[in-house]
């Protein structure tokens, strides 16, 4: 099972990046005792047959993982959501993109710990490829939004330790500003 919420987030966002998306939007909302996540992309999408099997642990999209024949990310996510009084929905259109939404009861005893959100966001922004990642985090009435292109430009890119450190510090500061 995933050890943290950040592990789940990294796995599900990585799916969008690997689907060839040029734009991935991630929104985390913490309000009314719930943690809700929405990930929308303009990647290759899925047809009805793949969509129906997406939560089957004994299935993975052909060609996605050469060395394995199972896909555990979404089934584990569903298990965590179910255990934490949440939900998961997946909508996709072939050639258009995919939207994954999931939530957790923030007070559930089965809720995994958060993990290190700033480092997870920077890791995802540093993922190779020509995509834009727009990340929004809202806690009650406070929020911030940052894009991969803007942050990369502001810190001089993600290809040096200085750039990665500055990006992580910026996001950590943004997180601390949320009430």
What does this structure look like?
- With 179 residues, the protein is of the alpha+beta class.
- It has a single domain (5-177), classed as 2-Layer Sandwich (Heat Shock Protein 90).
- It contains six helices and six strands, in the order αββααββαββαα.
- It has a six-stranded mixed sheet with strand order 3-4-2-1-5-6.
- A hairpin with a 2-residue loop joins strand 1 (23-31) and strand 2 (34-41).
- The model has no long low-confidence stretch (mean pLDDT 91).
Summarize the structure.
The chain is an alpha+beta fold.
**Estimated helix fraction:** 25-40%
The protein's oligomeric status is single chain
Biggest beta sheet attributes? 6 strands, mixed
Shape: globular
Category from helices, strands and their pairing: alpha+beta
What is the CA-CA span between the terminal residues?
30 Å
Q: What's the CATH H-level superfamily name?
A: Histidine kinase-like ATPase, C-terminal domain
What is the highest CATH level, the class? Answer: Alpha Beta
How many strand units?
6
Features:
6 helices, 179 residues, six-stranded mixed sheet, Heat Shock Protein 90, alpha+beta, 26% strand
Mind sketching the topology for me?
Elements: H1 5-18, E1 23-31, E2 34-41, H2 48-53, H3 73-83, E3 88-93, E4 97-105, H4 117-125, E5 132-139, E6 142-147, H5 148-155, H6 161-177
Parallel strand pairs: 1-5
Antiparallel strand pairs: 1-2, 2-4, 3-4, 5-6
Helix pairs in contact: 1-4, 4-6, 5-6
């Amino acid at each position: 099972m995933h050890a943290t919420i950040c592990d789940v987030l990294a796995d599900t966002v990585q799916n969008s990046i690997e689907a060839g998306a040029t734009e991935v939007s991630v929104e985390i909302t913490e309000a009314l005792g719930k943690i809700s996540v929405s990930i929308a992309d303009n990647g290759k999408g899925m047809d009805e047959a793949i969509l129906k099997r997406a939560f089957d642990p004994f299935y993975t999209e052909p060609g996605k993982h050469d060395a394995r024949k199972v896909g555990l990310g979404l089934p584990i996510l569903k298990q965590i959501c179910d255990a934490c009084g949440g939900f998961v929905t997946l909508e996709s259109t072939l050639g258009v993109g995919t939207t994954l939404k999931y939530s957790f009861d923030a007070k559930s005893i089965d809720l995994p710990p958060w993990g290190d959100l700033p480092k997870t966001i920077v890791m995802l922004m540093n993922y190779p490829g020509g995509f834009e990642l727009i990340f929004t985090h809202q806690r009650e009435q406070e929020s911030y939004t940052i894009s991969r292109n803007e942050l990369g430009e502001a810190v001089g890119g993600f290809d040096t330790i200085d750039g990665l450190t500055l990006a992580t510090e910026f996001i950590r500061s943004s997180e601390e500003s949320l009430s």
